[in-house]
């Protein structure tokens, strides 16, 4: 029997694993890490993936593609795409020629890379996969994810909600606890989602769900970048917003600072006073607020990318 793998196709990082001998195995990448950057870079010489693509981004920013998941399955005239992401087809210079790719094609490259990681790990071809998507994804975003799988040569057995996958993982790790309500909180790179499930002997039922499709780590980074660009303008009278390389370097520094500061919430609050509060809002109220009250959680599970 050929094994099926599970793929978490994330905005900033992706992950591949399989269920074998009664337990979940997460497959590490070449660098020994369980989460791999969802990043593709195009150069004169060829295509680079994951850490290799991310590491050269400062030098080749216009041809390095991040966050393709945010464009997946969105109509080109979609106001959100125009506002937040500009053009929904990605234009790059590749081997000396101008090329454009659909988000599905970029996602297919990321999926293909994860498939290869799984094949190296298992020593056999991997043809079947389950791919997770955010619970808020609509039909066309789900279809686009499926299409990306097909382009990568994967038979997509199922598209599963990310929070449901987390609830299933929770139930596997806590098998005989009787009926429980579990709150899953997933703060990703692109979005935040919160769901309450009731879990009883492996049967997982969604009780309530809420979230914001444009409130993830990327948005925190954006807030910091605009704040510091403003500071730079005030102090040095120079607007760096058109210098993509400078903006990328600032973004990398902001993300690193965010990660360091997040270990100490008080230093975060003191040092970065307003931009995050004024431009980032908290998730919208749950679609079924009563459900959160009716189903008090016995356990809270935080999702790590
Ligand atoms: N210690 C930390 N403190 C704050 N943020 C962190 C920390 N570590 C990682 N992050 C942020 O988490 C985000 C990545 O999370 P994750 O890998 O769960 O996202 P994802 O699965 O790619 O995105 P999504 O689920 O939205 O598609 C990045 O924005 C990263 O900067
Ligand atoms: Mg995620």
Automatic annotation (TrEMBL):
**Coiled-coil parts of chain:** none
A single GO molecular-function term is: ATP binding
User: Mind telling me which InterPro entries this protein's record contains?
Assistant: ATPase_NBD, Heat_shock_70_CS, Hsp_70_fam
SUPFAM superfamilies assigned to the protein according to its UniProt record, in alphabetical order: Actin-like ATPase domain
Q: List the Gene3D superfamilies.
A: 3.30.420.40, Actin, Chain A, domain 4 (3.90.640.10)
Keywords attached to this Swiss-Prot or TrEMBL record, sorted alphabetically, are:
ATP-binding, Nucleotide-binding
Q: Provide the family line.
A: Belongs to the heat shock protein 70 family.
Which PANTHER family does the UniProt entry name for this protein?
A: HEAT SHOCK PROTEIN 70KDA
Q: What is this protein called?
A: Heat shock protein 70
